[in-house]
Design goal:
heterodimer; A: about 325 residues; mainly alpha; two-stranded antiparallel ribbon; 13 helices; 4 strands; B: about 500 residues; alpha/beta; six-stranded mixed β-sheet; 19 helices; binds adenosine-5'-triphosphate; binds magnesium ion
């Protein structure tokens, strides 16, 4: 007889949720007057939302064992393109579309180098990172540009039924991508390629094409994130996105997607981004300078990786024991 | 043999394939029929895998023609071959460990929801998998993650995966190399069923005993060339082997038993991951085998001795030195060598050339004073290439590009080069052709003759009986019997290995 679907399906609380709860309690005790406020909760959500969108592409990339270092500069570039175009009288919609198109174009360039020509992804996306960053400076002429559009401002700060439009947008994007990753052929292919590119190839999956799509997706989401960031401040700085490549990678890893590939997913990334932003805000409130914050976040990542590796080892040992009884 | 055209499934005409420096296939012509099991025989590196990969669209041929049911086909992509009804189970496992059995079975061809292109019907995928598993008699839950399965179970998932489409031709490249007897029986049952459905099967194996059990026709290849096709039921095994290796193999097992020397290894109540209370001994000049079913804890014991896995209780003495905690580095220093079962993961650096791999366990020899002695490295490499008959133009070739069996020979060379005095061989001849097997047995005999102590784990009963002085049989983690050479027989080994196993079933 076949034993189908074991009924005992415990939903384990992932470690990251404990991490978030711990941080909230920790900062609430250290800064009881400043940290646990509704204002801060909203602030964290708004700031997380940009990072979440910037990390969607990175999640897919790390799932297929790649990385895109150009995320941050594409964000900056997208912001300044829209700002410059809108200020020169182009309709806002067209400017936004143009920015997103440029983002996707950079994705095509990355994908061509990495997926088609098999260049190393570090070098390839490092190059496009430099190109996009340079272009952003050129386009903006090295300056922060204010966007005097009410609609643009509304995109970043307006509310629908009392909820920030940005947060709604992120919810829709995340829900959409959760669906794509979990339920569609494209999503299945990503997990298969991540698990083993060779196995995927031998199973008839077009690895090159799917990797290409992932890079284009990364460009798309980077551009959208850049536009969100610009809209929040109604202005675009050519270095606005500078820290985001690092933060996005951090969010993905903290969220449990591993470089081994094929393991993890977007839900974890969302939590990872939130955790990162709680950490940033808390450290700010404690008066720790941004330079130190980076180091601290680095330590957190190392701690998480160490914990992951140790946990995996324990599991493996236990598994080899477990198999024993039903050899 | 007269050939009725309606039974013709695949016909190959003058297929050639060149790899850098190697003509892997030279003008090969063969035909495969519906409802037959066609065995491909050949030494390691003869071109068997290359040939079937061309049929399955994994490689493209340089020259030649392929006909499928009479009409020419030219597969440019794997998908083309799949859609034409050709499935292949590769020599190496190709599974996604993090994904479920169902997801693995349907990888790349997941069923879609009706009217919603691109959206996967997970329910259907799981129920279809459950049905397939049941139909093929594989008792596994389709939701189980593949990494939780034993190697043998994973191999069965590969079989199910290959059968999840409508196929005309099933290619199996050494499917049984890591299966237990029970699963081999099941696999053969499946093969017979497929045959009766008119499906053609190409079957590659180095296990000669399987040929007559399951094969209909046997084709022999050597050095990339087609040699002959014979009828499996009426063939003369010796002739076939001679054709395969190009020389006569006088004697498969050769052993000059010598009087055992000093005690080399003595374990005292050793416990570890999947074994308990193991007390065994090995003397200089002795070949001691660990027999038992796959999963009896033999490999785990070996790994613990060498230091890959922890020793949880007990200790052992090696060359008079007492050991309670082993590390690979310390073990190597003490003169122990370990040829692991999973060579790919544990024994080779696939991206490095052959010669670097061969010297990697004896670096002192090639770095006499911190500088690499390049000439010596090449000399050692060349020596073992000749000695082990590794099929390669030179020892600078990347190990990854070698055929499966030749990769094994490189690992064996690596440990031989280390000139250790206590050597553990875990399944030394798995996936190795019969000619090389004979050489490995000779080598083991020579090593023993020179005073090395040898512990061999083997699931091939023939070789256990053929070359060991003494055998310990393990069952469910414990040593249940010690048999001397004069008491050895395959029947005796089997009965000890499975006794009591029936009630656990
Ligand atoms: N990808 C590759 N690149 C270069 N050479 C290769 C490649 N694949 C196979 N070869 C070479 O082609 C020859 C035939 O290899 P093949 O894998 O077909 O042998 P095989 O008959 O399957 O042997 P085995 O029994 O060891 O699996 C070998 O000399 C091998 O080194
Ligand atoms: Mg092969």
């Amino acid at each position: 007889m076949i034993k189908l679907f074991s009924p005992k399906k415990r939903l384990p609380v992932p470690g990251i949720v404990w991490g978030i709860i711990f941080l909230i309690i920790f900062f609430s005790i250290i800064r009881p007057a400043k940290f646990p406020t509704l204002y801060n909760a909203l602030l964290i959500l708004r700031h997380s939302s940009v990072l979440i969108v910037a990390s969607i592409g990175m999640t897919m990339l790390i799932l297929v064992s790649q990385i895109d270092l150009s995320v941050g500069s594409v964000m900056s570039l997208a912001g300044v393109i829209t700002a410059v175009c809108a200020e020169s009288g182009m309709p806002l919609g067209v400017s936004l579309a143009l920015s997103i198109l440029v983002g996707m174009l950079i994705g095509v360039v990355n994908g061509t180098m990495v997926a088609v020509f098999r260049f190393d992804y570090w070098i390839s996306t490092f190059a496009t990172m430099g190109i996009a960053a340079g272009l952003a400076l050129v386009v903006a002429n090295g300056q922060t540009i204010t966007v005097r559009s009410d609609f643009f401002n509304w995109l970043g700060n307006g509310k629908v039924l009392g909820i920030d439009f940005l947060i709604l947008l992120v919810a829709v994007l995340v829900a959409g991508m959760l669906f794509v990753l979990g339920k569609t052929r494209f999503g299945y292919n990503i997990y298969s390629i991540g698990g083993s590119a060779e196995t995927a190839r031998l199973s008839g999956i077009d690895v090159t094409k799917n990797r290409m799509f992932v890079f284009i997706g990364s460009g798309f989401f980077s551009a959208v994130a850049g536009l969100m960031l610009a809209a929040m401040g109604s202005s675009a700085s050519p270095i606005a996105g500078a820290d985001y490549s690092f933060d996005a990678i951090a969010a993905v890893i903290i969220g449990g997607t591993s470089f081994d590939g094929g393991k993890g997913g977007l839900a974890g990334t969302v939590l990872g981004a939130v955790l990162l932003r709680i950490l940033t805000l808390g450290l700010n409130l404690m008066g720790i300078p941004p330079t130190w914050q980076k180091a601290i976040i680095g330590v957190v990542i190392v701690a998480i990786i160490v914990n992951d590796v140790l946990g995996e080892r324990r599991r493996k040992t236990n598994e080899s024991r477990r198999v024993y009884s039903n050899v | 043999m007269p050939l009725d055209k309606t039974f013709e499934l695949v016909e190959l005409k003058n297929i050639s394939k060149q790899f850098p420096g190697v003509l892997a296939l030279n003008n090969v012509s063969m035909d495969f029929r519906k409802g037959e099991v066609h065995v491909l025989l050949g030494e390691n590196g003869a071109g068997k895998s290359t040939l079937v990969k061309i049929i399955a669209g994994v490689y493209t041929k340089d020259k030649g023609e392929m006909l499928l049911e009479g009409s020419p086909v030219d597969f440019k992509r794997i998908r083309d071959a799949q859609e034409a009804g050709i499935a292949i189970i590769h020599q190496e496992l190709n599974l996604l460990p993090e994904r479920s059995i169902a997801q693995n079975i349907f990888v790349g061809k997941e069923p879609e929801k009706k009217g919603l292109p691109g959206i996967i019907d997970k329910k259907k995928m799981i129920s279809d998998s459950a049905e397939l598993l049941q139909r093929l008699g594989v008792d596994l839950n389709p939701n189980t993650q593949v990494k939780k399965l034993s190697i043998a179970q994973q191999q069965m998932v590969e079989v199910v995966k290959a059968l999840s489409r409508n196929i005309k031709l099933l290619i199996m490249d050494e499917p049984t190399s890591s299966l237990t007897k029970k699963e081999i029986d099941k696999l053969f049952e499946i093969i017979r069923k497929l045959k009766s459905d008119g499906i053609g099967i190409i079957y590659i194996s180095h296990r000669m005993d399987e040929i007559q059990r399951i094969g209909d026709r046997v084709s022999i290849m050597r050095d990339g060339e087609y040699i002959d096709t014979v009828d499996a039921k009426t063939m003369n095994m010796d002739e076939v082997i001679t054709k395969m290796v190009g020389r006569k193999i006088e004697q498969l097992y050769s052993r000059r038993y010598n009087a055992p020397g000093k005690l080399v290894l003595q374990t005292n109540g050793l416990c570890g991951l999947r074994f308990r209370n193991v007390s065994i001994s090995v003397h200089a000049g002795e070949v001691v085998a660990l027999s038992g079913l796959i999963g009896a804890g033999r490999s785990e014991l070996a790994k613990a001795l060498f230091g890959y896995d922890p020793i949880e209780a007990g200790s052992y003495t090696l060359f008079g030195e007492k050991v309670t905690r082993a590390t690979p580095k310390e073990s190597t220093r003490r003169g122990m060598a370990f040829l692991p079962e999973d060579r790919k993961a544990e024994g080779l650096i696939l991206q490095m050339p052959i010669k670097n791999n061969i010297v990697s366990a004896s670096l002192k020899k090639v770095f006499p004073n911190f500088l690499l002695n390049n000439a010596k490295e090449t000399r050692i490499g060349e020596h073992y290439r000749r000695e082990m008959r590794i099929a390669t133009p030179n020892v600078d070739k990347i190990v990854q590009e070698l055929s499966g069996g030749n990769q094994q020979k490189v690992v064996i060379s690596k440990w031989l080069a280390s000139e250790s005095k206590f050597i553990i061989f875990d399944e030394p001849t798995r996936g190795i052709d019969i000619g090389a097997k004979a050489e490995i047995y000779q080598l083991i005999d020579r090593l023993a003759g020179e005073g090395s102590a040898i512990l061999m784990i083997s699931s091939e009963l023939g070789e256990v009986v053929g070359i060991s002085d003494r055998v310990y049989v393990m069952r469910e983690g414990e040593v249940v019997a010690e048999l001397k050479r004069d008491k050895l027989s395959q029947e005796e080994l089997v009965s000890w290995a499975v006794r009591g196993a029936a009630k656990n079933d």
